[in-house]
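Tip: read the tokens left to right.
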């Protein structure tokens, strides 16, 4: 008896800090999901928070991702967010990542060092097209929040709601004030 062949799902990995989650991230995740059957969204630098460049906790970032992806209509069974702490070396980080992610076939990233490391481990890598990178970057969103200028149109409405609900807007403004240089 011949058994029907079973398709092995293609699993992808997309890595980001998501400080905060914005429309560029949403476009990147949508791009990755189009190329795989299942996607792990790795929230890197999970141990960092309440810092100028990393103001949000891993749980706040995962909440923003979940609510924004749910709001965009992306099927929850197609992805999972996983927090990942930094390690003393990137080579160790890849090994640690391999110990918590069951299996993945392709890594989506635009970080040249990350792409090089995964290639060295024999993992297929794919660059993600940027979605108006100058406008949609975490640094730009944080800067605008810190300055009190328009920022909400840069993030999904669900992320904007959570940023306010978690007190993140006030936190960014407080952190920004600490780093304002006198002229």
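Filled-in amino acids:
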């Amino acid at each position: 008896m011949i058994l029907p062949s079973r398709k092995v799902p293609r699993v992808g990995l997309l890595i980001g800090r998501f400080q905060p989650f914005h429309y560029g991230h949403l476009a990147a995740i949508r791009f990755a999901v189009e190329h795989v059957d299942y996607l792990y969204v790795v929230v890197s630098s999970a141990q960092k928070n309440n810092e100028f460049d990393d103001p949000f906790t891993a749980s706040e970032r995962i909440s923003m991702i979940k609510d924004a992806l749910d709001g965009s209509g992306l099927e929850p069974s197609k992805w999972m967010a996983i927090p990942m702490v930094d390690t003393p070396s990137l080579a160790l980080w890849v090994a640690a990542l391999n110990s918590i992610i069951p299996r993945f076939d392709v890594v989506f990233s635009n970080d040249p060092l990350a792409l090089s490391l995964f290639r060295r481990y024999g993992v297929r890598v794919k660059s993600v097209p940027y979605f108006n990178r100058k406008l949609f970057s975490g640094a730009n969103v944080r800067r605008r929040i810190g300055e009190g200028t328009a920022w909400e149109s840069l993030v999904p409405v669900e992320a904007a709601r959570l940023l306010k609900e978690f007190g993140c807007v006030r936190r960014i403004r407080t952190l920004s004030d600490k780093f304002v240089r006198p002229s």
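Residues 58-72 form the longest helix (15 residues). Residues 11-178 form a domain with the Rossmann fold fold (CATH 3.40.50.620).
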